[in-house]
Structures are given as C-alpha cells and as structure tokens.
Predict the structure.
Amino acid sequence: MGGVPELPEVETVRRRLAPALAGRRFVRVAIADPRLTRPLDPADVARELEGERVAVVDRRGKYLILRFESGRALLIHLRMTGSVLTGEAAQGDDPYRRAVVALDDGSDLAYRDVRRFGTWLLLEPDEVDAYIDDRVGREPLADAYRARDLAAKLEGRRAPIKAAILDQRTVAGVGNIYADEALWRARIHPLAPAAALDLDEVKALHRGMRRALEQGIARQGSTLRDYRLPDGGSGGMQHEFKVYGRGGEPCERCGTPIDKIRVAGRGTWYCPSCQRPRRAPAYAARSSSSRPSRSRRHSSV
Ligand SMILES: [Zn+2]
C-alpha cells in the first residue's frame, strides 16, 4: 500500500522529537546524500548547521520545522519514505541513513530515507515565514480554523473536491489518505466539483477532516511503507481506516463494498452508496460503476 506521511504522521514525529531536541545544540553534522540539500552542497549546509541550537520543534502542514535560537529554521520534508530517528534507533548499521547530527548531550539524530525524496532546507530568519506561507494554507486543526475558511478556498474551483483538498494551499497537511477518510466522513463523492459543495457539505467536510486528522494523531499516525517514529516504532492508524486501501471490503456504515477510482492521478477509495454524487451528472457518469444503468443514461446525453 502506498501513502506518504501526512499531517498526523508529521505531528506525531514532532511530538516525539520535541523533548529530545529542544535546547540541544548541533555539534557535528554529516550529510551523506547530496539529494537531501540540492541544489546546495551538503557539506556547506552541514557546516552552516553546526553550532545552531534548537529553540522549538514546530510543524506546518507536512513540514517538520526545527526553529533555531538564531532565528534560522531547518525545514524537513519527509516526502515518501523519510524518517527522523533518535536514541537507540539512530544507532547501528543502516544503509538508508542519509544524515547524522551529533547533539551536545552526546546523543545522535539520524535521518533515514529509502527512496531519497525527502529534503532539508535551511532558511534564514527573514525567509522562513514567507517560504512556508507561499506553499501551505491554514492548519486544519487550529482552533480558529472554521468551515467558512475552507469554503473561501473552494469558491470558484471546478476541480474535484479531492484534488482541491490535496492542494496544500487549500488546507495544510491533508494528503491522499486523510482526504479519502475525510470525504467518507462527510459523505461527499471525491469527484464532486469543489465549488458545487453547499455550505452544509463544506461544514461536514471541515468536521470530517478534523476528526480524521485527530484520530490519526491519537493513533500516532499510520505506518506505511518506510515511515518510522523517532524511536523506530510504528503508529496504529492503518487499522482504523474507513475507506483508504479497503477496496472490496464492506463500508462500516452501510455494508456496500468500498470502490476504488482515480482522482487527480491518485488511487481513491470511497463508498458508492454513502458518497453518492448529487448534483453534477457529469461526474456521476464517470464514477458510478456500481450503477451501470444510470451511467449509460448520463453518457448518452
Ligand atoms: Zn457506505
């Protein structure tokens, strides 16, 4: 099964890392993989990082952010298979270890990445907020984040709702898994045009998204492929998925087998009964494999 770290996975990493890193100084930094820092030379980045002291371990969307006392920040994006390891999990032989930071308490922080899509970007104090704000929308779990904020981002967008919420500028940190889980909770078809949702549907999506993400955090994320918690352990959210990766299994609400389609190039799981298209026949025709007669009628007009 695919899947990459999303908000709950990165937030879980952040919570585990914070106690190990807050107040620690980077004594020695070795970056073994030039892809991690490109186009910058990894040796230059490593040298710049040495001496920095961590003030706060932060997160925005899927970015893990080590904010230093100097005001600089290291943005770590785990992408597909990156993990940050501490303590025992940072030791021993590992062919996928791409970077090691020796901390001033004698412990190590290791960065492991099987497929090498992850990135480390060191930003100067005046660059940090602008860089993030250009790429990442509001935090969906922030107290101040309301359904009307989501509605404002969906206004006028003809893209399928799933594609719209995968766009990190719509809302921060929702990826393929939690998009499917949120849409199932909200009973919205993944191909529904974003702008066609009414206010009740946007409210349901806002609530569904928050619940799915909160549950993901409560289960310490889902363990997919090469995702690891900082201590080398794994999360348990993969046992709680309502639709993601569950093609052919019964929907827990209605018993209908979960169906799989592609939306925005991504495998997409949904319940054809609970998440029935309501307004736009065009996307109903594209997706109603469970109701062939309706599909024929729409495609003939
Ligand atoms: Zn259902």
